[in-house]
Amino acid sequence: MTKGVGKTGVVGLLEGAKPGPTLLLRFDMDALPINEDTGAEYASLNQGIMHACGHDGHTSIGLTVAKILNAHKNELAGTIKFCFQPSEEGSNGEEIGGAEMMMKDGVLEGPKVDMTLSMHLWNEKPLGWVHVAKGPVMAGAEEFKIKIIGKGGHGAIPNLAIDPVVCAAQIISAAQSIVSRNVGPLETAVVSFTIVKGGTAFNVIPQEVMMEGTIRTFDPQVRNKVVNRFEEIVKGVASAMGCQAEVNVKQLTPSLINTEHVTATVQESARRVLPQANHDNTPYLTMGAEDMAYIQSKVDGCYFFIGSANTEKHLDYGHHHPKFDFDEQALISGAALMAAAAADILK
Ligand code: NI
Question: Percentage of the chain with pLDDT > 70?
Fold first, then answer.
């Protein structure tokens, strides 16, 4: 076992009896800055910090899977790398998030990782729902920052100024045409302006306006098209309005895409070990982002969801809610499927 991979990450190796590929199983461990309001006997003891996304459940599943596979290591052809990852929810003040930090510390090397599996307990769906699908499952996220530079002046004499406020308004309007006119009708993208800042007084045309927001996409080609159009529109409209524009689009996470062959194996394992489950292999896309996408952009893999809500037991609050909690039966399904799929891949 190696500690301190990506600051507080932990990596464990399990070697099978026979040689074969290396499979990385990733379980995120981090909590969120939320005051827990579940009243559960196992509620957080730390004020202002809570496991509001179910990553404590993922950690439990990971430890259980390690125990199960260790008991069956004679049947495994290959190596399993157990990866317990910090900071999935955000970079926690660091430059990069947990997956990237662990990659920087070499989690994909020594031995070199060939495939990967990971999962999320999912309170948007009831207990018994299992989702294993090929293709994109979580969106890629970009953060953009724009500075529109005009020429400040008196609000009553706009002809002597170059108004960055009017320019910003035109840019916001023009950017709406990216999703409606440049992205195909069956493709998916979101462009949202979420911060607009400018001005100091009612009678002053400001010198600058700052804007921020986010772009979300699934398909990397759509992502490139949207980002290129976005930059063209911001610069082109600013130029037409006599302003200058600085645009910075920063990729936060690529989209999370499941590889066909690994996913097919997990689907078979799911049908075998969870025969009573509601197996959903149709696209179920969420616009949320997941930093496992960094690992899966380098290595073939499958990320699956296990339904964990139970309305009768009031365990159906959404992820990141102060009352979030899941039905622990989902831990059994999660561990069973992860262990079976890992064993099937290294058969
Ligand atoms: Ni999460």
Answer: 100
| Options 30, 36, 100, 290, the catalytic residue | 30
Segments making up each domain of the chain, as ranges: 2-138+255-345, 140-252
The full DSSP string for 228-260 is: HHHHHHHHHHHHHTT-EEEEEEEEEE--EEE-H
Note the pLDDT of residue 283: 85
Domain formed by 140-252, architecture: 2-Layer Sandwich (3.30)
Query: Cα(188) to centroid of ligand 1, in Å?
Result: 22
Kindly tell me if the per-residue pLDDT of 93 is higher than 90.
Answer: no
In the sheet with 140-149, reading across from the earlier edge strand, the strands are: 189-198, 208-217, 140-149, 244-253
Position 99 scores a pLDDT of 96
pLDDT score, position 82: 98
Packing angle between helix 55-71 and helix 329-345, nearest 10 degrees?
A: 50
Distance 97 CA to ligand 1 centre (A): 13
CB 34 within 8 A of CB 322: yes
- Ligand 1 centroid–CA 51 distance in Å is 9
pLDDT tens per residue, range 254-284: 999 999 999 999 999 999 999 999 999 988 8
Rounded to two decimals, the pTM is: 0.87
Choosing among 3.30.70.2470, 3.40.630.10, 3.40.190.10, 3.30.420.40, the CATH entry for 2-138+255-345 is 3.40.630.10
CA–CA separation, 323 and 336 (whole Å): 27
Q: Is 30 a catalytic site residue?
A: yes
Q: Is the peptide bond before 111 cis (omega within 30 degrees of 0)?
A: yes
Report the separation in Å between the CA atom of 89 and the middle of ligand 1, taken as the mean of its atom positions. 7
User: Which residue stretches of the chain are H helix?
Assistant: 55-71, 98-104, 164-177, 220-240, 260-273, 292-296, 329-345
Task: Convert the pLDDT of each residue in 228-240 to its tens digit.
Answer: 999 999 999 999 9
Task: Summarize pLDDT for 161-207 with one digit per residue, the tens.
Answer: 999 999 999 999 999 999 999 999 999 999 999 999 999 999 999 99
Catalytic residue among 36, 88, 142, 316: 88
